[in-house]
Amino acid sequence: MGPSGSGKSSLLRAAIGLQKPIEGTIELQLDPTEVGILFQDDALLPWRSARDNVALGLGFRGMGRAEALEVADGWLGRLGLSGFGDRYPRHLSGGQRKRVALAQVLALKPRLLLMDEPFASLDAIVRMTVVTDLVGLVQQERISVLLVTHDLEEAIALSDSVYLLSQGPRARITQHYSVPIPRPRDPVRARTHPAFAPLLAKLWSDLSNEVTRIAPAEAA
Amino acid sequence: MSAAWRPLRQLVALVILLLLWQAAGWAGWLNPLYMPTPSQIWGALVELFAEGRIWPHLEATFTAALVGLALGIIVGVLLGVLAALIPLIAELLEPVMLLLNAVPRVILAPLFVIWLGIGVASKVALAFILVSVVIFFTVFTGIRQVDRKFVERITTLGGNRWALLRHVYLPSVAAWVLGNLKVAVGFAFTGAVVGEFVAASRGLGYLLSFAQSTYNAALMMALILMIMAVVLVIFAAANRLEKRLLRWN
Fold first, then answer.
1. What is the ipTM of this complex?
2. Is A125 inside a domain boundary?
3. Which residue of B157, B171, B248 is in closest CB contact with A56?
4. Which of B149, B159, B175 sits opposite A60 (nearest CB)?
5. Residue ranges making up the domain that contains B71
6. Which of A192, A200, B80, B184 could be a cystine partner for B140, CB 3.0 to 4.6 Å?
């Protein structure tokens, strides 16, 4: 997490090679094909059905079309979208599109999933259900996730570690928090864990310090 | 005012208008030299078909328009793609296209007649130049405005340049071209008819200019009606094609 402009998105984009770091290097212990990324915008191809969208990446890896479609249907099913495979993105709700985008990335069996505010466009209720399903799948498949978010509660409920970036430019990591809520974890119930509220308060005060520390300089 | 009856109300209004027009003609209020009655126009239309002499003209106009349309789309797409991908080509082509886009391109009609004769070639050329410039800009600006997020999505899913072309650029181009198909059809027929009007021995445009030189207002209106009908039929076909191919939209 971090204030706007601290370079959270740039960090993720650099990690997957969409952006070259101006200085320094990115070290990846995985093959790039083992990294999946999910943006705020689902970016499904509007001219391909849900099933075809999910099968895209599998096709790029050389899987035959029939097999890829079968795998795609399986993933759509796991994300609660059985029977929606023939729909075009335009005819799906925001939450359904997000699930298709998730299926598209998860079908490639990533070991690391990078997510840049993936749920920001969803309303609170849809967001809750999508996040819960995602956490379930990620725990089952044992995928590591690097999540960028503005949402403090989401950061704690979903993560094992939270890193706070300072205000940019020249942002760096200023704080690191371990989240003591055990796994497997239900992201909704995690909010009632006794460790949740104190950590939220700490994160909130550190983040607002980070923002106000810079504000006078901006005014000057 | 129920919306369901709207077509009926429009039809009734049209019939009343035609009846008034016809009645004015019978009453002798209209000079038939300038303003023939609906029945005279209908008579001219029936005559054109009854003698069968309309077919070669229809064929000539259709051939010129459709060949010009096809060539215009092919060349427009090719040049648009090349210009979008290769900066040097864009540099050389864009000013020419901007100029051609800014002027009424039908002013080239007499030139094409001198170059290509009064046969079908000069009409095809005019339809072609009208269509290709529109399609060029559609494709050229379209490709440069392809949403980066699709490109990034395909790249991060492991797609190469060929995948980008196949899954992002080609579908986008197809969608833009189809979206402008009706404009292009209109231009193709404009090109064919204007070309025939300038100099030809066959075609609806030629018949129009013949009707003008013989002061035959009934024939002229019959021809105008027919050209409208022809273009409407083609519009309907283009609409169906668009709906079918862009059903994801």
1. 0.82
2. yes
3. B157
4. B159
5. 45-245
6. B80
